Amino acid sequence: MTAARHSTGPGVLQRGRRAGSALELVLLSLLGVASILFAVGYVICLLYLLIKGAGKIASFTTYASPLAGVDNESAMRFVVAVCAFGVIAWAVLASCRAVASRYHWWTSSVDRVGVIVAVVVARGWRYCA
Amino acid sequence: MGQSATIVDPTETVAERSQFVMRSRFGEAVVRVLLTTCGVFVVLTTVTMIGFLAHAGLRGMAMAGIGDLLTGRVWKPEADSYGGFALIVGTFTSASGALLLGAVPAVLAAVWLTEFAPPSIKVAERRVLEVASAIPSVVYGWLALVYLVPIVFSVAHWLRGADAAVTGEGLASASILLGVMVAPTVMLLSLDALSRVPRALRDASAALGASPWQTAFQVSVPYAWRGLLIAVFFGFARAAGETMAVQMVIGGARRLPKDFLFSPTTTISAQIVMDMQEARPGTPQNDVLFSMALVLLLVSVVVVLATRLLGRQRLS
Fold it and tell me: pLDDT at residue A128 above 80?
């Protein structure tokens, strides 16, 4: 009872009774929402780029385009393919490893099997294409 | 490693010991010479570059006339007319617009993240912005050309009327694009500046009865003022020097915009890129392009000096 009287007494410092506290709260909320929206905008933009770009790469690689007759074109294509698919495979494996190791699913044998599966899938994809 | 190597081995002879010391001193000397060479190389490269730019730029200024170059309205190199006023106005306006649209919200967002946001949100947002700041400018430019310019075109016609001679390309698109581009960098620099505010200052402010809002804007922001200023001016310098992305959305018209926001115009860097293919080395056109590059460099130098001066005044 005493505590309740103390907490509501006129001379007690309370954050909600400070002059301008309502305005501070509104501004703080606005700033927070704007700040989060600021980052969400970039996230949407990045995801859009990632999804659209990945879709384009996949659509380009599902059919073979004939060689244009440039010197060493097949070697250059091989290098580009190794770089592109190597990066994609590394990113996928690293992501899977990060998630799985958090739950202690990832072992060295799983690692080896993962690499083999990735290679088989990639080969199979190329055959299908 | 070094500590274990200096332990005296009782079986080691004086000759072996002195040989070891000689080898260490020789290694240190080699590293010192290498580091000094690298430092001198960086300084020499910068000084040579500025010297070359100043030499060619001043030659171009003497040829075209400083007054005409800075205030002339017609930029037509094929007719030996080098009036760079429109270029300078375009550069300053687009960079200032970028500051307004990108840097100011970025600094405010950094204040919220540092002072009020939960740590998880702060870390997540920081990661997103680190990725966003690493995106090449041409990607931003391409996205703006495909998505932003049509939106600005619609807004321009809605504001000025359907018959108005306005386009989506111009200072409005360039400012928005530059704002989006510089915001992550400004925000990351602002976060660094604000995170250097000592915890004791915040605690003292809270102990004196200040609200979190008052602590943020009357303690943390003034303390980090210099860092925030550097972040903003760094954003300005980056926006003023941006080339490819701006060139894709500004329209490339070598004149002052007919409609200030929604008509094509150009900037110094965009115009240098457009004219450099026809400006062969040694020609007057080439020298005048160097003059405009010198103007851009001087703008950056003035911005850096202003940052230091303002920061020092604030500190004192």
Answer: no
Q: Which residue of A lies nearest to B142 if distances are taken between CA atoms?
A: A49
Same domain, A122 and A75: yes
Residue at A9 is within a domain: no
Are B131 and A39 in contact (CB < 8 Å)?
A: no
CB atoms B132 and A28 under 8 Å = no
Residue A57 belongs to some domain of the structure: yes
Which of B114, B128, B143 is most worth mutating to test chain A (most A CB atoms within 10 A of its CB)? B128
Domain co-membership, A83 together with A43:
no
Q: Confirm whether A11 is domain-assigned.
A: no
Domain that holds residue A48: 17-64
Segment B125-148 mean pLDDT: 91
Burial B238-262 (b: 16+ CB within 10 A, else e): bbbbbbbbbbbbbbbbbbebebebb
Chain CA centroid to CA B39, Å: 23
- Domain boundary, last residue among A29, A45, A64: A64
Which chain B residue has its CA at the smallest distance from A27's CA? B213
Rounded Cα–Cα distance for residues B174 and B168 (Å): 10
How does pLDDT run across B23-48, given as a tens digit for each residue? 888 889 999 999 999 999 999 999 99
Domain boundary among the residues A30, A45, A64 is at: A64
CB contact under 8 A, A31 and B184: no
* ipTM exceeding 0.90, yes/no: no
CA angle B1, B3, B4 (to 5 degrees): 65
> What residues of chain A lie within 8 A of the CB of B121, using their CB?
36
